[in-house]
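# step 3/5: fold
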Amino acid sequence: MEKILDTIHRKLGAGPILDRLAEKISPSELNSFLLELFRRKAAQVQPARLLRQYGQNRFVAPAAADTLALRQTELDWLRFAEERRFHPLTLSPLAPLGTCSAIGHVGQNNVLSAVRGTEVVSDATNVLALQVAQDARANPGKSAVFRYAAAHRHVRGQAFDNPKFTAHFSVFCMASGGWDTGNYAFELGQLNEHLSIILALLRRYFPAERLFIRFYRKKGADVFMERMKAYSEGIWHSLPHEFQDDPEHAYYHLIQAKVFLRLEDGAIDLADGGPVAWTQRLLSNKKHRLFISGIGLELVHKLGNEDASV
């Protein structure tokens, strides 16, 4: 990135343009500037170049998936979640600029930033967190729990080595938010709810004996772990699972649960979830709780079809 900026400075014969833009102009002025810049750049695009870009740009290529089967899977999973009190949402393709970096600590270079104060959604759980926080602010009743589910196409800027990981892909996400009731009751209850749904969906594609859960313990989670072991309703007690210390994860706290699929040459994680502090920061209230989870819906769809064809 620095080399590209230096090249631009040399071409324009100017000093550090970014510093001056960031310091001297307002967000609305920057938006107008970018809109005009993109308009002029788009006016230079020739049809032949457009076609060439369509074939070369990894962000715009169609997904290598059975479209109708994938859509049916999304619909089936959303209906299943709705039966378990998670309200389905159709999210916008865009989110407010900084949605991932401000609360999820994801580098903005891994997100496709856009104009008009927006970015392309790269993690729908961040958007669901905004919805939960908005609902919590509008409905201050301490007993309210808001549950949402979405099947959303994500776009991410980083390049992946694994050919199964593409620039855009479908993810099934859930988020549930409520107020702290003590003794980690909310976190444990939602861990159980989310895992129950995740495992029920994955078992539609893979034998139960090929799935296992790995729990990553976070720093300062000793009391939570004692409560977790004593939580008799936990679905994990009857399933293969293991624990591993992971105190440095960027945004989960207390615990992160990952569901893995056993492969001939190892294992691949298909889903994960855990409690995060995003709504606490959005609401400026440390008593609010949020639990998020996600399944690589398109990855599950591809792997499940591969298994079926063997």
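# step 4/5: annotate
The mean pLDDT is 88.
# step 5/5: archive (pending)
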